[in-house]
């Protein structure tokens, strides 16, 4: 019996609620050995109040030493083993722009590139063509027609765009056409040997590329394109199926909405700020069992390498905590989880492998002695160190939603 | 996707270095409840200085409660799941004397024994015949010839020697010929039913034993021998393949060199002392990405049951730490790991199952509050408690050698 089978067999419908509050990249590093991290530096009276009545620990997103991207990072938080449920690059990119994939779709991440008269690549990213220019070029590609296939072409950012082929019987085992170097032509899309479904996809991709090159021939920079990460929608059991949860996502950025939709969560509202996200949470409180609330900017400022700005984003988060706590208190037996999908230390200006402080507030928490929320407190917290995928079983348990295993 | 597949997909070549400093059996026990362990007793100003700027934790060699031999202990440290990669006793013994096995070889651990006129064993270890006497007897066995097989016979220590058969198509599923008791004859080598390759090995073994008994008939003690642990060279992916690392081993004892060679490490120098090992490290610093440096005597004195002598061996280790630290500092982004393959408490005079204090020094370490290196400090260190096989992913991560998993 694996983790999912176990949870499926134990999950019970109750009136209690779960809020999974994800502060993206919240874990960090001190600026010098023995110093304070961003989270430890921030003034967080409301999170600290939760630490006093809750239990915390350090969650490892994937495995010790492994730095996750946003995809695997969130899958772990949602209770999916990120080494088992792999989201193909094309599907992740499609989810990132909020494109709703169907089971039979094949999504491909494409890059505009520049080729010379001989057809050899001179710039793999078409001079990082600005997003507004790129969007206009993408629009031109929307006229491409291939019999028997519904085709979607959507801009992403700068030189990147997404192509989705919708038809029955398409495979995703097709090699990238990006040769990863200049001075050579764009590669042909080669299907995995012996896979008829992928051969069909490769033929469609070839025809798409042929028509695209004809349309793009007079573009000064984006006169060609590569295709990478041919992928289906990931085949994941839903929150309803796994945990008996009617689940919802409240996020600003499309990628996180896409990831949540793979888990079968409803995408709520159209919030642009954290305050607005909490407005949606309040409004929808009675309509769902589980809410994934995503706060992006702790990660963004970490990625910028701006320690103080990340501290400020933690303090922003702290301000909305009382509103969430009030909701939790309004529904007996509910649980609040505060965590991140990974660390993003400002000193590294990137995602990192360091474990993430994770805090659970619930009447059922075995409280520890920690009075603040942060890395050095979490190290001595009651949850110990554990794999992030167990956050879901802990959340379900702390909201009284799991029956006893065995008699 | 498993651990090795994951690391393989993420490993990147960089200029940074990793030093894995293994103090064999370094973990210990206090002499009375509440006392200090050997490591905690030792004066280790240099290791303590590392503890202040690094992060430590307790690694479990195999699983909680499991005491490893040197083979599985080191495999874990090298990042191989010791429950998946099993080194047969014959191959381990061959590696222990520095014998370089080929893929097709079958190695066998042999014991001289004494039999009476009726052919029944009277002493399973031939009176623990001294090594110099034993080596002379082993030499006599070198004349044994079997058509189509290259045969190697090498002394080990006292009554123990190694036999290696080199030929195509040999299997290793052959039962031991040691009956594990006296008063009965040496058993025939029985192959696993239905395995033609192992039948071939058994026939060669039978012929070897027949010729050996004829040669040994006038020996006063070593007039017969048993054969145990028929084994091939373990089939392990190399460090280059798994981690993109050009790896080297600096060790004094043959067994550790053998274990390292199974992982594809180059065996460097011919050091006889710890200072000489560090000389080799300095000399070869620019030629490799990864160095496994082995210090034997913490284990040896633990096995002797000599608490104070083990303390002294820890202090010996501490003395060379500044030389290693200087090298680490000379190459930006490098990481030093200090650990052991298992504990060897002097109070037990044997290997034990207790977790091992493990310390990582790197610019990327999330420093903890520990100011000393030792069991009771590691317990509250930032790495928590973890399986020893993750030391490799942590080492790679702390030296910036792992890319991001997923986007």
Low-confidence stretches of chain A: none
Give the termini distance of chain A in whole angstroms: 16 Å
Largest beta sheet: strand ordering of chain A = 9-8-10-1-11-12-2-13
Structural class of chain A: alpha/beta
What is the arithmetic mean of pLDDT of chain A?
96
**Largest interface here, residues on each chain?**
A-B, 39 and 33 residues
Q: What kind of oligomer do you see? A: homodimer
- Roughly how many Å is the radius of gyration of chain A? 23 Å
Strand content of chain A: 15-25%
What characteristic shape of chain A results from the CA principal axes?
globular
Order of helices and strands of chain A: HEHHEHHEEHEEHEHEHEHEHHEEHEH
Number of helices of chain A: 14
The major sheet of chain A is characterized as:
8 strands, mixed
Please tally the β strands of chain A and state the result: 13
Provide a descriptive summary of the structure in words.
- 2 copies of one chain form a homodimer.
- With 407 residues, the first copy, chain A, is of the alpha/beta class.
- Helix content of chain A is 34%, strand content 18%.
- Chain A has helices spanning 3-10, 38-41, 45-53, 70-77, 89-96, 131-141, 196-216, 239-243, 254-262, 274-284, 297-303, 307-330, 375-378, 391-398; strands spanning 18-23, 55-60, 106-115, 121-123, 150-157, 160-166, 224-231, 247-250, 266-267, 290-295, 335-339, 356-361, 384-387.
- Chain A has an 8-stranded mixed beta sheet with strand order 9-8-10-1-11-12-2-13, with helices on both faces. In chain A, strands 3, 4, 5, 6 and 7 form a 5-stranded antiparallel beta sheet that branches.
- In chain A, helix 9 (254-262) links the parallel strand 8 and strand 9 (266-267).
- The longest helix of chain A is centred in the C-terminal third of the chain and has 24 residues, at 307-330.
- The two termini of chain A are 16 Å apart.
- The mean pLDDT of chain A is 96.
- Chain A binds chain B through residues 29-30, 33-34, 37, 58, 62-73, 82-84, 86-87, 89, 92-93, 348, 350-355, 375-376, 379-380, 384-385, and chain B through 1-3, 6, 10, 52-53, 364-369, 380, 382-386, 390, 392-398, 402-407.
């Amino acid at each position: 019996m694996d983790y999912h089978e176990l949870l499926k067999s134990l999950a019970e419908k109750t009136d209690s609620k779960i809020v999974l509050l994800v502060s993206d990249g919240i874990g960090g590093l001190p600026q010098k050995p023995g110093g304070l991290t961003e989270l430890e530096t921030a003034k967080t009276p409301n999170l600290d109040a939760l630490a006093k009545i809750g239990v915390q620990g350090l969650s490892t997103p994937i495995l010790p030493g492994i730095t996750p991207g946003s995809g695997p990072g969130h899958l772990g938080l949602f209770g999916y083993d990120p080494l088992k449920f792999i989201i193909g690059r094309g599907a992740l990119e499609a989810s990132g722009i909020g494109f709703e994939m169907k089971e039979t779709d094949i999504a491909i991440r494409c890059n505009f590139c520049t080729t010379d008269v001989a057809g050899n690549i001179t710039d793999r990213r078409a001079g990082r063509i600005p997003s507004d220019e790129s969007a206009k070029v993408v629009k031109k590609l929307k006229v491409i027609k291939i019999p028997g296939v519904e085709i979607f072409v959507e801009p992403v950012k700068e030189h990147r765009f997404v192509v989705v082929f919708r038809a029955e019987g398409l495979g995703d085992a097709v090699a990238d056409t990006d040769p990863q170097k200049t001075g050579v032509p764009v590669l042909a899309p080669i299907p995995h040997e012996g896979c008829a479904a992928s051969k069909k996809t490769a033929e469609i991709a070839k025809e798409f590329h042929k028509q695209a090159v004809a349309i793009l021939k007079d573009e000064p920079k984006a006169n060609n394109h590569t295709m990478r990460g041919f992928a289906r929608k990931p085949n994941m059991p839903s929150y309803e199926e796994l945990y008996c949860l009617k689940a919802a996502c409240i996020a600003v950025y499309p990628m996180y909405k896409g990831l949540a939709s793979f888990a079968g969560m409803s995408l709520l509202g159209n919030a642009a700020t954290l305050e607005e996200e909490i407005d949606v949470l309040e409004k929808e409180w009675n309509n769902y069992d589980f809410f994934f609330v995503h706060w992006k900017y702790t990660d963004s400022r970490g990625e910028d390498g701006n320690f103080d700005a990340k501290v400020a984003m933690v303090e922003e988060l702290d301000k909305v905590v009382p509103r969430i706590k009030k909701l939790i208190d309004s529904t007996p037996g509910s649980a609040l989880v505060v965590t991140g999908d990974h660390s993003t230390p400002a000193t590294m200006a990137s995602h990192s492998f360091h474990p993430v402080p994770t805090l659970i507030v619930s009447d059922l928490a075995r409280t520890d002695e920690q009075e603040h929320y942060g890395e050095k407190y979490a190290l001595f917290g009651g949850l110990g160190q554990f794999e992030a995928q167990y956050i879901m079983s802990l959340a379900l348990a702390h909201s009284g939603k799991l029956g006893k295993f065995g008699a």
